[in-house]
Write a structure and sequence with these properties.
By secondary structure, this protein is of the alpha/beta class. The chain has 22 helices and 22 strands.
């Protein structure tokens, strides 16, 4: 039976059946941390560790992580007059997830015009709509060079402890390289795609062939390089890849062209739409690159995908199409001009626009999604020659249950005679032994196993960072967050002065363009630090009242239309484990990403730093409320 013969109720029943196959009682515990289980697999394959002397100095601002977060915060702080800024990074260079992820075919899946930060500041034009990993990495290095962020950076360095010293009003930072230095301010930007994970498959440690995670791609073994050179050393190799998520959608096409035999082990298929990538025309780029252009493009994308009613769609891609379909269904019968007028009136009255009737919104989402998925499933039939393989590659869930994928090369790869899809019907690989893998009761002998098993996206702060933070009075951040995350704006924590966290939770929670979250946080951090330094304040932190009020606001966020608990399990919905209070505290602004960014724009424009407490050494100076 094909998808086109199913009615709406039958499709929903099919979704529920497929979800039930994949639910596991161990949830996120089914995975193994790469560093813990296989430290040799977690080692840096890209750059050797250089010997250096331990650092024992003082800096104004130290930032853990040299990905987009550390780079953009550093750039904005340099502009704000902070010259002594230090990056601390476990990798050998800047780039964060793009330093590590050099697998073949790696690209951004959000348009580079809005994904690459500081394009206007650096004067750089992306070569394509969706650029390759090496170009992204080069842009990171461009930012670091332009803003002098290499000057005090510590690479191949992991933090052991960060502890607040009340008497000196500084953070003391100690690392695995023997460093022991202090900083007035500390920032964290370890990111959601930072800690690689492995599937907890029995016997995983017994395999005698070659194995690696996609974030530690071994080109010495495969041949080729991140720039796309052929992986000629795989010509006589039988290769298994476990996982069919966003990474696999990108790296399977080049693997299929290189390996003697490729076995793709699938638990849950991805939904794969067209990509339509193309070069960026320099003449066109010059015509749109007027002052403020990138902010306008980023704002337009979030208005299209994060809760607005846009007049135009500058990006015009698969992401904006998803939102446009839902918006058109939700506004059915309401002229666009009238909907926009209603929002302007509410803003003029300084009220939040009324949220659409939840039933109407859910109905619109469901209708739009069913239509879209009924296009994507037949697309598989049209591309994949073998009917049995095509049927197994169809995604039976709502498109936004998992991160949607876009590729013009992935599905055709399964027409190659050397590529075999091993669908496990939701169960996953049964076990691994010395010579290969067992799935569906059959043994597959291979020379190499590649784990495309993703990252600890929903991991707690301590797991992502690799250390705990000790604040005022010796309180550990893991203890303070023991019953759930507590922040103001997802960025600052009461009892942890001069500390800033750059991430998505309790903020915009905008997963469709993660750099937008970073760019916005960096503006706020720079403004706060500039104010504190200009006025001679030694501490800044949120008041308890402001933090409580912000968490209470976050808890009003209802179950998301994206990756709801009803979805097939995945990292977007807590592996299907439900929305308990602790998980709900990791959600974003109840009005959605656009509402959060609008709130922060107003907060910064007001200039009164509402909710923050500034203090000078020896005497208190308040901005809003007393420290409790």
């Amino acid at each position: 039976m094909t998808s086109t013969t199913l009615d709406k109720d039958s499709i929903k029943q099919k979704y529920a059946q497929e979800r039930a196959k994949r639910l596991r009682p161990d949830g996120n515990a089914q995975y193994l941390a790469l560093d813990d289980k296989f430290p040799e697999m977690a080692a840096d394959p890209h750059m050797p560790v250089k010997a250096r002397e331990p650092v024992t100095d003082h800096v104004t601002f130290a930032f853990v992580g040299a990905g987009f977060s550390g780079l953009v915060v550093g750039a904005r702080l340099k502009e704000a007059g902070i010259s002594d800024y230090r990056l601390i990074e476990k990798g050998g260079n800047v780039g964060g997830t793009w330093y590590w992820n050099r697998y073949p075919g790696a690209r951004c899946d959000t348009a580079a015009m809005i994904y690459l930060p500081l394009l206007e500041d650096t004067g750089y034009m992306p070569s394509e709509k969706y650029v390759r990993g090496p170009e992204i990495r080069a842009h990171c290095e461009r930012i670091a060079n332009q803003y002098g962020l290499y000057d005090r950076a510590l690479f191949h360095t992991e933090v052991n402890t960060i502890e607040w010293h009340e008497a000196e009003q500084v953070w003391r930072i100690r690392t695995n390289r023997g460093d022991d230095f202090t900083a007035k301010y500390v920032g964290m930007g370890t990111g959601p795609l930072h800690v690689a994970k492995l599937p907890g498959i029995p016997g995983i440690e017994t395999f005698r062939g070659k194995s690696f995670h996609t974030s530690r791609w071994d080109y010495d073994y495969t041949g080729g390089d991140a720039d796309g050179a052929p992986m000629d050393k795989l010509a006589d190799k039988r290769v298994a890849i476990i996982g069919t998520g966003a990474t696999s959608v990108q790296c399977i096409p080049p693997l299929a062209k290189s390996a003697k035999q490729l076995f793709v082990f699938q638990r849950t298929p991805s939904s794969v739409d067209v990509r339509n990538n193309h070069p960026i025309d320099p003449t066109w780029f010059k015509s749109i690159a007027r002052p403020g252009w990138q902010n306008r493009w980023m704002d337009n994308f979030v208005e299209n995908t994060g809760g607005g009613i846009p007049s135009e769609d500058l990006i015009d891609d698969g992401w904006t199409e998803i939102s446009r379909r839902i918006r058109e269904k939700a506004l059915k019968g309401t002229p666009l001009w009238l909907a926009k007028l209603g929002m302007r009136v509410h803003k003029a009255l300084k009220r939040s626009p009324r949220q659409p009737d939840l039933r109407r919104l859910r109905s619109a989402f469901e209708e739009a999604d069913l239509e879209k998925m009924e296009q994507l499933r037949p697309r598989v039939d049209a591309v994949v020659a073998d009917a049995g393989t095509a049927q197994k590659l169809k995604a039976w869930y709502s498109q936004l249950c998992k991160r949607p994928c876009f590729s013009d090369e992935y599905l055709p790869s399964f027409n190659a005679p050397n590529t075999t899809l091993v669908d496990t019907n939701g169960k996953g690989v049964e076990r691994i032994d010395e010579t290969g893998l067992v799935a569906n009761g059959a043994h597959y002998e291979v020379d190499c196993i590649i784990y495309a098993s993703g990252f600890e996206f929903g991991a707690n702060f301590q797991m992502k960072s690799g250390f705990d933070l000790k604040g005022r009075g010796g309180k550990m951040l893991s203890e303070y967050w023991g019953n759930g995350m507590r922040t103001l704006h997802g960025m600052q924590v009461h009892g942890f002065p001069n500390f800033f966290s750059v991430q998505m939770n309790q903020a915009a929670n905008y997963a469709l363009n993660i750099p937008h979250n970073i760019v916005d946080h960096a503006k706020t951090i720079a403004q706060i630090v500039k104010r504190a330094e200009a006025a001679g304040f030694s501490e800044v932190e949120p008041t308890r009242e402001a933090e409580v009020a912000w968490v209470d606001l976050i808890l009003t966020t209802g179950p998301s239309l994206i990756a709801s608990p009803d979805c097939t399990p995945g990292f977007w919905n807590n592996e299907g484990q439900g929305w308990d209070k602790k998980f709900r505290q990791t959600q974003g602004h109840p009005g959605g990403p656009k509402a959060f960014f609008d709130h922060m724009n107003r907060w910064r424009a007001a200039g009164d730093f509402k909710g923050l407490h500034f203090a000078k050494r020896g005497r208190a100076q308040e901005r809003s409320g007393r420290r409790q």
